[in-house]
Amino acid sequence: MSAVITTDRLTLRRIWLEDAPTITDLVNQPQIYRMVVSIPAHQTVAQTEDWIAKHPSGRETNTRHILAIEQDKRLIGVVSGERKDTHLPFNVGYWLAPSAWGNGFMTEAAGALLQWLRDRGERAFVSGYLVDNPASGRVLEKLRFMKADRRKVFCMGRGERVDHFDMARVG
Fold first, then answer.
1. If exposure means fewest CB atoms within 10 Å of the residue's CB, which of 92, 116, 131, 133 is most exposed?
2. Where is the N-acetyltransferase domain (predicted)?
3. Count of CB atoms within 10 A of residue 88's CB?
4. Contact at 8 Å (CB) between 3 and 15?
């Protein structure tokens, strides 16, 4: 993968080990960990570093493309395309610092990642959002995802099962 994807307002780049403290501070905000199923409450810097250490092998196998989102050289979020195997669609995930909400950054960042994946020949994508996070649903709708299912999923940050909409996009 190219080390950098740029948009009009953002830079998407690989996550570096030195990003761990900033990422940890951000994901420990309840507005983030309560809305992302895979982020635990009270994540430690060591847990973040362990997560970052797994990124290179995922890039090599074309199963994990996880990027920092920067605006004016400040890390404001993360966007990713991940899958268990290369014959499966990429699951698009993301989170954004609350201070950056409401500016269209996530639609811009996720759209850039989707375009990069499409340029590499990918055509099918999945994603989803917790029912009580309609803003995330609006991002996915703007990116042409459609609702496919509603089910309960375990949210690590809440420590309980919550309602979730599964979404999909072809093309």
1. 131
2. 10-171
3. 12
4. no
